[in-house]
Amino acid sequence: MHATKSTFFMLFALVALVAAAPSPKNLLDAEVGNSYPGESLKRSAKNLLDSEVGNSYPGESLKRSAKNLLDSEVGNSYPGESVKRSAKNLLDSEVGNSYPGESVKRSAKNLLDSEVGNSYPGESVKRSAKNLLDSEVGNSYPGESLKRSAKNLLDSEVGNSYPGESVKREAKNLLDAEVGNSYPGESLKREAKNLLDSEVGNSYPGESVKREAKNLLDAEVGNSYPGESVKREAKNLLDSEVGNSYPGESVKREAKNLLDAEVGNSYPGESLKREAKNLLDLEVGNSYP
Question: What residue range is the signal peptide (predicted)?
Answer without folding.
Answer: 1-20
